[in-house]
Amino acid sequence: MKKIKIAYWIVTACTLIGFAISAFNEITHSPKTFTGTTELLGYPAYFLTLLGVAKIIGIIVLLVPRYYRLKEWAYAGFTIDCISAFWSMMAVGNPMGSIQSVVVFLFVMLSYYLLLKMEKGDYIGIEEKARFNY
Q: Which residues cross the membrane (predicted)?
């Protein structure tokens, strides 16, 4: 269980650092992010702020202990973000840009898988104690 917890926090930290950098660039409307999103993809400028704030909320939810149901929503949001980024890059003819979203998606899925393994380990311990009256 301890190895799973360590692996979870390493993978999750890497994932959240990436999303935090992305959120910072979107909220501050950094020139590269602003140009790439508004000109290349054709999204409105206010959409950057929306994405950045949503990512920050997701990051906070994943860092707070417990609240597994909220964590699932955060993972769903990050998954939708990755799929949308992939599809958007493919739609404008930038397949190399879509590779980044696939890599991030794999990190999100690995982090979620490890969270489920940790959660299952916690519940198994409780169920076993209840069943055997320890």
A: 7-25, 45-64, 73-92, 98-116
